[in-house]
Design goal:
Strand content: 15-25%
Order of helices and strands: EHHEHHEEEE
Low-confidence stretches: 150-154
Helix content: 25-40%
Mean pLDDT: 84
Largest sheet: 4 strands, mixed
Distance between the termini: 12 Å
Structural class: alpha+beta
Radius of gyration: 16 Å
Strand order of the largest sheet: 1-6-2-5
Number of strands: 6
Shape: globular
Length: 154
């Protein structure tokens, strides 16, 4: 099975958050962005019919490809900036969880973002319709059960 989700979120360069931000302010910005991503992903997954997980007992391995769609005068980023900019979105794909006494929302598209439960790839392309967004392609391997990240990749 394969599902494609379009999320109307503009990714921002990681340079401003990582290099130039104060720690407390940077953490708050990240949490707001992650929570907004989780909400948008939850709605998009429900609308696309993506089976989400409620617990690890019913979970299995998935491939996820995140594609940044940029527009106008924007340009392609280098690979490390692209991966860093997708961190909140990647975290929002996981099961909702309690961490250090704080509830973290998640879309439950994957159990977690470890190599045991998911494999991630990143790409970017100019948006054909002129609207900045992120395309998320979720697919399942042909074999059942968790698969090591070192096994056959698609």
């Amino acid at each position: 099975m394969k599902w494609t989700l379009h999320i109307p979120i503009t990714l921002t360069t990681a340079n401003a958050r990582v290099v130039n931000g104060a720690h407390a302010a940077t953490a708050a910005i990240y949490r707001r962005h992650r929570d907004a991503c989780a909400l948008a992903l939850t709605v998009a997954a429900r609308n696309a019919g993506v089976p989400t997980f409620t617990e690890t007992a019913d979970a299995h391995f998935r491939y996820v490809r995140l594609v940044r769609l940029y527009t106008g005068r924007q340009r392609a980023w280098d690979s490390d900036n692209l991966v860093a900019a997708c961190k909140a979105l990647r975290d929002a794909c996981q099961l909702p969880r309690l961490w250090r006494g704080r509830w973290i929302p998640g879309a439950a598209i994957v159990v977690d973002d470890s190599a045991t439960w998911s494999a991630w790839t990143y790409a970017q392309e100019r948006a054909a319709d002129g609207v900045a967004a992120v395309r998320i392609e979720v697919s399942e391997p042909t074999t059942a059960g968790p698969v090591s990240a070192r096994s056959d990749e698609r």
